[in-house]
Amino acid sequence: MGNDLDEIRKRLNSRKKQRQPVRSVVRNDRMNDKVSSSSFQDTEVKIHPLFNKQSFMIRSMIAACLFLSAGILFKADSERVAPIQGYVSDLMVQDFQFATVKEWYEGKFGNPVALFPTAPESETAGEKPVYALPASGKVLEDFETTGKGIMVETVLSSEVEAINAGVVTYAGNKDGTGQTVVVQHTDGSESWYGMLDSIDVSLYDFVQTKDKLGSVTNSEDGETGTFYFAIKKNEAFIDPLQVVPIE
Asked: Whole domain around residue 66: which residue ranges?
């Protein structure tokens, strides 16, 4: 009888030993299920953004359409769209200071790759800008006569250059000054170059100091050239000879 009890105990112990790994496996599976469930929940939180994707896509498409429409508008040569082109151009100049934003961006984040040309290393923050002559010559009409700018007589077929770095905010025909280029500088001022025979820059081009903007208009006798030059600061024209002396 005693031997039978010993045998039964041995069998029970043997079964317990066989069952223990199974139970541990079940526990491990349950733990893995819990871990997997919590990990999945964490992943779900990261996947879902905080903004509305549909709204974002709609706004992106509208912005792209407006951008393309503006590009097509400025490429059109029809006289019907000329007033609209002028309005949009003036609106962009008043509401967005391109040169100022460019300087701020480069000061904060450095020069963006392939977006803006690299500025010369000699230019340092805080220094007053050194203005270059748009073209050498003599003044035919001074600021007191015109009330806005000066007329300059120069050498035949001379190139007109930017007096300082900036962004071209206008390139086309203006009443009173003919073919005109307007460059906006980082301090918010503008330099105007008018009465040009040809224009060699496009709207929103970034130009460096002494970059060619166009050519002067030659006189009928073919001996000299003339161009118009003005500087606008704080929404008012100032005497350009106070900034850039021309002999």
From this structure: 53-95
Helix axes 53-75, 82-95, angle to 10 degrees: 130
Q: Are residues 74 and 146 in the same domain?
A: no
Within a 10 A sphere around the Cβ of 193, how many other Cβ atoms? 28
pTM for this model (two decimals): 0.55
| Phi, psi for residue 41 in degrees, rounded to 5 | -65, -40
Residues 63 and 153 in one domain: no
pLDDT in tens, the chain (247 residues): 556 556 666 766 666 566 555 444 444 555 555 545 555 455 444 545 555 777 778 878 888 887 777 777 666 666 776 777 676 666 665 545 555 555 555 565 555 544 444 444 444 444 556 677 788 889 999 999 989 999 999 999 999 999 999 999 999 999 999 999 999 999 999 999 999 999 999 999 999 999 999 999 999 998 999 999 999 999 999 999 998 877 6
Cα dihedral value 205, 63, 67, 170, nearest 10: -50
Number of structural domains (the chain) is 2
Q: What is the CATH number of the domain that holds 199?
A: 2.70.70.10
Q: Is residue 26 part of a domain?
A: no
**d(C-alpha 116, C-alpha 32), whole Å:** 54
Kind and range of the H or E run holding 144: helix 143-146
